[in-house]
């Protein structure tokens, strides 16, 4: 491989590793902007992955498969909403329980589909543009979900900061009592935000089982849900920085693969822990600046809303 062509497979791998993080991170960002902390991202990713894979295997229709993943994630998020918004359960404990539930139910549903391969999502090719050296395959030869992830990030950014609906959502997250006092349905808005976050995580899971590794395996998310949660803090609740962080963590994730291929004399266990080690380091560095977090974090995040108050 001559010239700069060696960089193409690296960039393509980074993009595939980052895409599920973009979906999950953008979805959780909207959820947290409404004032709700949902730690069940890992479980929603898994449920979305298994729902999409089973649907693709049975029907052969990728559109239905991605839709099934989104619906599965949204349904799990709806259950979270019922417990935390309607029944006022603790959001942290419920989110952790949601992850455990997602791990178990995905393993149960997918037990008969383990190891069955499917064709990966087809790549889109733009005539003429896809043949451009280096940039062509990277920018114009991806599957539809890669472009959808970037589109959703731009759409969420526009919605949050350029529309009345986004202003209302942020108001609910910053002061739910004030939003309620002027007539907005805090619970209703939060239900929509939570279910949107679940749907995005479901699509991220669908990407894992249909494109990243087109097969089903238990716990195939490998902690990506927790990385997505860390991305929100890293990005200070800004959609654009979520994308930047997702691609950064995606690069760290695939670093282990290229290091092993290059014959680097480092134990594989150390290479495998790099993404999670990077997550811990980033969170430690960010937590040192408490004023930065307080400035950007929704003021009511994780707080239970009592309509009668």
TrEMBL record:
The keyword Membrane applies. PANTHER family: ABC TRANSPORTER PERMEASE PROTEIN, SUGAR ABC TRANSPORTER INTEGRAL MEMBRANE PROTEIN-RELATED. InterPro entries: ABC_transp_permease (IPR001851). It is found in: Cell membrane. Pfam families: BPD_transp_2. Keywords: Cell membrane, Membrane, Transmembrane, Transmembrane helix. It comes from Sneathiella chinensis. This is ABC transporter permease. The chain crosses the membrane at residues 6-24, 36-56, 62-85, 92-109, 144-161, 269-286. It is a multi-pass membrane protein. It comes from the Bacteria.
């Amino acid at each position: 491989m001559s010239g700069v062509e060696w960089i193409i497979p690296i960039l393509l791998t980074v993009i595939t590793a980052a895409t599920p993080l973009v979906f999950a991170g953008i979805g959780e960002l909207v959820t947290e902007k409404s004032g709700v902390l949902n730690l069940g991202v890992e479980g929603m990713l898994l449920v979305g992955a298994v729902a999409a894979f089973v649907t693709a295997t049975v029907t052969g229709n990728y559109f239905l498969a991605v839709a099934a993943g989104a619906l599965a994630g949204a349904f799990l998020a709806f259950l979270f909403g019922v417990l935390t918004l309607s029944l006022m359960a603790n959001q942290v404990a419920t989110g952790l329980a949601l992850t455990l539930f997602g791990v178990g139910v995905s393993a149960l549903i997918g037990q008969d589909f383990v190891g069955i391969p499917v064709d990966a999502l087809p790549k889109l090719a733009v005539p003429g543009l896809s043949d451009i050296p280096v940039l062509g395959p990277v920018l114009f030869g991806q599957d539809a979900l890669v472009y959808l992830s970037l589109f959703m990030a731009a759409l969420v950014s526009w919605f949050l900061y350029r529309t009345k609906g986004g202003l209302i959502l942020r108001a609910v997250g910053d002061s739910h009592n004030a939003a309620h006092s002027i007539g907005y349905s805090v619970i209703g808005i939060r239900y929509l935000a939570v279910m949107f976050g679940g749907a995005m995580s479901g699509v991220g899971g669908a990407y894992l089982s249909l494109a990243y590794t087109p097969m089903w395996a238990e716990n195939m998310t490998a902690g990506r849900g927790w990385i997505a949660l860390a991305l929100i803090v890293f990005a200070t609740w800004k959609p654009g920085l979520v994308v930047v962080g997702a691609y950064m963590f995606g690069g760290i994730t695939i670093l282990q693969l290229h290091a092993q291929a290059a014959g680097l004399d480092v134990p594989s266990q150390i290479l495998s822990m790099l993404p999670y080690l990077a997550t811990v380091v980033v969170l430690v560095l960010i937590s040192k600046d408490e004023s930065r977090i307080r400035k950007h974090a929704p003021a009511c995040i994780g707080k239970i809303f009592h309509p009668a108050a």
